[in-house]
Amino acid sequence: MTTTLETKAHTMWTTMDSPVGELRIIARDDALAAIEFSPFRGLSDGRPIGERADHDPLLARAVAQLSAYFARELKEFDLPLAPAGSTFQKSVWAQLLEIGYGQTASYGEIARRLGHTNAASRAVGLANGRNPIPIVIPCHRVIGANGSLTGYAGGLERKQILLGLEQDALF
Questions:
Q1: Whether domain 11-70 has CATH 2.40.70
Q2: Phi-psi region at 135: left, alpha or beta (left = phi > 0; alpha = psi -120 to 50)
Q3: Is 107 in the active site?
Q4: Selected catalytic residue, list 26, 34, 110, 139
Q5: What is the tens place of the pLDDT at every residue in 18-69?
Q6: What is the pTM (predicted TM-score) of this model?
């Protein structure tokens, strides 16, 4: 008789208040898997899958680092990340991590960094919009070629707040 052991991912979460509204931070196993803006998606009633674990060391570290970021005391996050996505999406998200605090890049620049032409800007934009770990993977730092804010999954107001927070911290 052969048996297979199927390991299930252990998912847990916590919430925190921030200048861009309440955030839900979700960890899966030993890495950050998502940050959600309120109103939360989750299950049909908005609850996430998994258990609330406000005192979990990883989630507590994420809350502490996000709090320091919002207080303009932290410019680079140091957290294990495990965003779920396609190979292309993950390559875009890796490029987002290269955009420094207080800096911006256009969708076309990201496409070129990945070895594509400007024609891939739309695909970069779609991958950017599906980033499951906003703020930490700084999709808010991607702007239109003409400097416009363009879309943001968390809403343009949140994007403006995040960019403003970083700009204010630089001066």
A1: no
A2: left
A3: no
A4: 139
A5: 999 999 999 998 999 999 998 887 655 555 578 899 999 999 999 999 999 9
A6: 0.88
